[in-house]
Amino acid sequence: MMDFKMVPEASEMPRINLVMPALTAGSDFGGVSTGIELFLRLVRDLRASCQIDMRLIVTDYTTQSDPGIFTRRAEKAGETVSPEDISLVRSSSDNITVRKNDIFFTYNWWTTLNIQKLIDQQTVHFGRSPLPLIYLMQDYEPMFHEFSSSHMLAREALDTVPRLWTILNSSNLKNFVDLLGHRMERSFVFEPVVSGSLRPYLGMVPASQREKKILVYGRPTVERNCFPALVRGLRRWARDYPEYADWEIISAGTEHPPVPLVGDREIRSVGKLSLDDYADTLLKCSVGVSLMASPHPSYPPLEMAHFGLRTITNTYACKDLSSFHGNIVSVRSIAEEPLAAAIAQACASYGQPVSDEGNAEYLREDSYPFLAQLVAEITAELA
């Protein structure tokens, strides 16, 4: 945690600030990519209705940080970023300039708690009513930490910020947050949407030639993707269902050594694929397995299902993706026997037709349909 100190800036021009931790080289994918894209869309739509500046604040800055990730994306979006539009914060002793009409858009729980201290100082110094803090929430972050101080502080980010506006990545996550009793002033929700880079390949799904291949989302270093359970399930499947001995198992996600199963069979890792190679792999495989210990739906099972793979994932609390697409089976247990049985059942359907009906929410063109409402409410706050 950092005790940021505010340096007042005289300008009354409204400004919206994206606050991201570290922003290290090579992190321009997944949640970081979504955060930057959403922020730039928000800037564009705000500027269509009012005059407003923007700024990137990188906290936890190190020599491995790369603010160019933001500037390059901004340029592609038609936004010019000058050096004055970037603030690099290395420690809690660094000062941050704050205007009377600065609104902050935070990326995770600790930037949310730290920036709230700046908003408190802004409110007192400029004698104004507190402005809302906008927090992009892409998963339930307290679960990233075992029961601990960090776990409790991550919860406090949802419970102690007076004017918290959350943007939640999926209604599944929103339902889970509500289930736990967190109460924010405002919530905006968007459902996951197919990547623009994968969308052109969807038209190739009906004519694709499927092979006896299982694609698994393998990330051994990411606990919430349940790699040990995935391996145990596949070993049980290889042992108990020898009729599928001619099937190949491919692991995409994070590169790792081959994982032995039974005999000379193994899980072969292809690491992190380019989007073109990933699409090609999706078009060839017949079965997909992607586990996620989280209320967030995760993108791989949605992609696998829409690309025609019989997809096995797991339920979690109020999450059940079997209603999202006809190709998805959501198992209630990831113990080795039921997981192996689900994989075997999917393999047994090889060659039979799969559901080709897409989920309209996932295939929509507008990634962030709530933006018009958010822009209107921000504009009203600044009026």
Automatic annotation (TrEMBL):
<dbReference type="Pfam" id="PF21374">
    <property type="entry name" value="WsaF_N"/>
</dbReference>
<dbReference type="InterPro" id="IPR048510">
    <property type="entry name" value="WsaF_N"/>
</dbReference>
<dbReference type="GO" id="GO:0030247">
    <property type="term" value="F:polysaccharide binding"/>
</dbReference>
<feature type="domain" description="WsaF C-terminal">
    <location>
        <begin position="212"/>
        <end position="343"/>
    </location>
</feature>
<dbReference type="Pfam" id="PF22772">
    <property type="entry name" value="WsaF_C"/>
</dbReference>
<dbReference type="InterPro" id="IPR055050">
    <property type="entry name" value="WsaF_C"/>
</dbReference>
<feature type="domain" description="WsaF N-terminal">
    <location>
        <begin position="15"/>
        <end position="170"/>
    </location>
</feature>
<protein>
    <recommendedName>
        <fullName>Glycosyltransferase family 1 protein</fullName>
    </recommendedName>
</protein>
